Amino acid sequence: MAIETVLGQLRHTLSLGTDQLMTFLRAHSDLPIAHILATPWRWTTSSALFAAVTYTSPNQLFGPHKVISDGLLNIPLMAAIVILYRMFIWPYPRSGRIKQILAFPLILYLVFVPMLYTCPTVFYHFMMTVIAIATVTRMVDLYYVQPWTGVPSRYYLTSQAARSAADSKKTDSSSSSSPSVKVTKLTNGQIKTARTTTTTTTTTTTAMTTTGLVIGAGDPFHWDQERFHEELWSPLRKQTGKKSPPSVGRSWRDLLFPFLVYYTVFDSIIYFLSFYTAEEVMAAPTLEYGLIVSVVCSYVYNNLQASIYMNALMYCLITGQRADPLEWTTLNNKAPLFAYSPTDFWVNWHTLFRYVWVDLGFLPVQRFCKTHLGPERLGRRGSQWAREILPVYAVFFLSGFMHGYIVYAWWRQPAWGQMAYFMIHATGVVISNAIERSFVGKALQQSYNDGSAMKQRVMRGVGILMMLVFHMATAPFFIDAYQKQGAWLEVKGISFVVRLFGK
């Protein structure tokens, strides 16, 4: 009874405080400052482009979802994912072409099942849709793109290069130290011969290692266990071959508390949003609507952060290793809210699927540009622009495709709004990079570096404000599908806070 009394008083206090805040916002929504702040958002939502990309056609390609049990949806999907990965370490079939043929229906299964079926626990459908499309993009790269281009994944090449360097150092030390013991007993001529042999041996070993790096990557369909673990975990991390000292990495104990913090904030946001239906959000006054949108953005950010910390925590528990901040870059990134340019924003945004898109989009397009769009065809400047612009658009196109697939598979909402959002941001990144390399950008950077601390704060503050306007002008494309469906209401069943306090 005492616990129920405390919870009741806390629920009453929260409800009273929320009501007072909403009353204040509704009373001041007609202030000029509110309309000024909402101008970028309203300009976008009233544009013809926004109306075109968010229009929901009454004639859908797929009908309503068929409801099946949670287990019947999730277990076969997980089994297909496991089989697709495990086939790389199975010795049979020996033919890579047969493995490609066997993988194709499994990939199609992952694509179409989340679009056609759902389950009573809606959150499971949400989660499996994201996992399925992320796995599809990864499998297309592993089974088809890499064998076609003949270029192995950079995770494998990076790890091989690191091992080759370590082997070369061991070979150098062993080959140089062993003759030194015998050198004192030999004549001068023989000493010279021994040193020459050592040098030749070292050079040959290095050359063989370098050659082995290419040869070892020759069979993309049959992996050993070491490569299997590398390919399984590496897309979630930044792989450069550089590692921090073991003491710098974070253990699972270090990751547990921030994971709980992010998840608690995410859970509390679900509780706050559960008081609103989609219709009430759309009809809310300006300031109240602005607060709700800010909370929804925080909902997305904290959900992603909790997911990233959970993945890093699982990595530590399963592998027994520490999470290296040079690899799990998101753990140390600053909040994207304080980005001063589109490039700075996406560098500090989450890395949950970034490297999957980089592998499937950025790197193949970059190689294509180098091979087929060189200076002899486009000229020096045109070739440089192609190498800098097209790979960026390829990455954002894949990201837009994935997010568009998700909103269509979940709610039959049009994917074009997501595509528009990511293409606009791709353009922002391209322009931002061009400005940074231009005379104006270099002059601004020099002024920032030479300026006082106050001047640097002002310049960064101006950049943050400009990015805030940019986000307000582009966010409607991304958030439209989520607010129309009231996405927060469909996941409140997993909220511990909602269960604790009720609505």
Automatic annotation (TrEMBL):
Domain Wax synthase per the UniProt entry, residue ranges: 336-423
A cellular-component GO term for this protein: membrane
Compartment(s) of residence: Membrane
GO biological process, one term: lipid metabolic process
Entry's transmembrane regions: 71-89, 101-117, 123-145, 255-276, 282-301, 390-408, 420-440, 461-479
An MF annotation (GO) of this entry: O-acyltransferase activity
Membrane topology: Multi-pass membrane protein
Keyword field: Membrane, Transferase, Transmembrane, Transmembrane helix
Coiled coil: none
Pathway where it operates: Secondary metabolite biosynthesis
Short name of one Pfam family: MBOAT_2
PANTHER family: LONG-CHAIN-ALCOHOL O-FATTY-ACYLTRANSFERASE 3-RELATED, OS04G0481900 PROTEIN
Stated family: Belongs to the wax synthase family.
Name of this chain's protein: Wax synthase domain-containing protein
